[in-house]
Amino acid sequence: xxxxxxxxxxxxxxxxxxxxxxxxxxxxxxxxxxxxxxxxxxxxxxxxxxxxxxxxxxxxxxxxxxxxxxxxxxxxxxxxxxxxxxxxxxxxxxxxxxxxxxxxxxxxxxxxxxxxxxxxxxxxxxxxxxxxxxxxxxxxxxxxxxxxxxxxxxxxxxxxxxxxxxxxxxxxxxxxxxxxxxxxxxxxxxxxxxxxxxxxxxxxxxxxxxxxxxxxxxxxxxxxxxxxxxxxxxxxxxxxxxxxxxxxxxxxxxxxxxxxxxxxxxxxxxxxxxxxxxxxxxxxxxxxxxxxxxxxxxxxxxxxxxxxxxxxxxxxxxxxxxxxxxxxxxxxxxxxxxxxxxxxxxxxxxxxxxxxxxxxxxxxxxxxxxxxxxxxxxxxxxxxxxxxxxxxxxxxxxxxxxxxxxxxxxxxxxxxxxxxxxxxxxxxxxxxxxxxxxxxxxxxxxxxxxxxxxxxxxxxxxxxxxxxxxxxxxxxxxxxxxxxxxxx
Length: 488
Known about the structure:
Elements: H1 2-19, H2 25-75, E1 92-102, E2 115-119, E3 124-126, E4 129-131, H3 139-146, E5 151-154, E6 162-173, H4 186-191, E7 194-199, E8 229-234, E9 245-250, E10 264-269, E11 276-280, E12 290-295, E13 303-307, E14 310-314, E15 324-326, E16 336-341, E17 347-352, E18 357-361, E19 371-376, E20 378-381, E21 384-394, E22 397-398, E23 403-408, E24 411-417, E25 423-431, E26 436-443, E27 449-455, E28 462-465, E29 470-472
Parallel strand pairs: 23-27
Antiparallel strand pairs: 1-2, 1-6, 2-3, 3-4, 5-6, 6-7, 8-9, 9-10, 10-11, 12-13, 13-14, 14-15, 16-17, 17-18, 19-21, 19-29, 20-28, 21-22, 21-25, 23-24, 26-27
């Protein structure tokens, strides 16, 4: 028994050092200090990070909303129809207009009491007196109040001319926010992100007390349509700044102003616009709103127009009726809200609605647009006549004013000029015993498009003229070989 006990003690004594291994108090203290320091750092940075994230979100929402509101003011609330004609009332909490009468030096005139107008969807207040009239019941009223000019001429019975100064502010809840912010309930309104907008609409004519340099160049809308002007541009190549040449991009549709149609207009001013003249440069543009316009500084006769259906351009705006082409190379058919050119005049940037931004390198020469010639089938009866027709297009638009020459077995049979749709028609050609096959060729040195007809052997008393279509230009040259039709 003693021997066993001694062995037990021996084994226990040898295992003791291993069972007592552990962290020291110093190591534990250091670990706790590191953890505490990390927690303090995280807790200290977390509020700042959350604040930055919140600020970024709010700035993003305000930027989206501001672009929408500016477009609403420019278009007269027409863009709010996508929300619903009266749905803008769900986002405007209140509009306030403080009107003050000032003298010509901009100082308030004590003879007139300032007016404070306060509008909501349920109440209206004038200097503290509340009524239930003049409510914000639809988008047109809201945009109308936000469009109130900052300065209005005022001519009282005594004391000379005065200016009414309007301070317009509006409280909004976000239009572009999350779905939880869009609800119509009181809780949704109370907890949604909201902000205050100060609107300043500065009139551009007949305000000599503030800026004597403004000149009204609308010309009583004799040429320029009485529709929203959605964009303007100046020609940077003019000889002097006081003789500007400008362009106006006009929205809406021709049916709204049938006596003054058009979407792109050019104004040429004499010195300081003491006199001016408008020209319609719409040409073959489709009847769709033009939202922006810009001039290529490197090639000023080249003008770009941003429409509701993509970008169009003309290589020569100086002609009476410019030929416009739709830009098809990598650009979507989307609404073009804005176009800009960098300071070095190297790049055109195009900003779409919902389809992103695009860049295009500018040059000092025309944009080469391949043309496509499509031949229309024709039929005729022996002894009668037939019409030969071909359609010339470029960039999706008909090319007008071009001569199409028709030749039979290398002998000319006549020519025709393309109309506004790009169609050239050679009428009343004899339909004899020959059947004709078309061949498309390149442009000749004179710029004339050649459509060649190949004479074949007689086959019957009736004939059928079939077509082969081709594309011209450096991007898609036509084959030179002549390919006969099955019966030729």
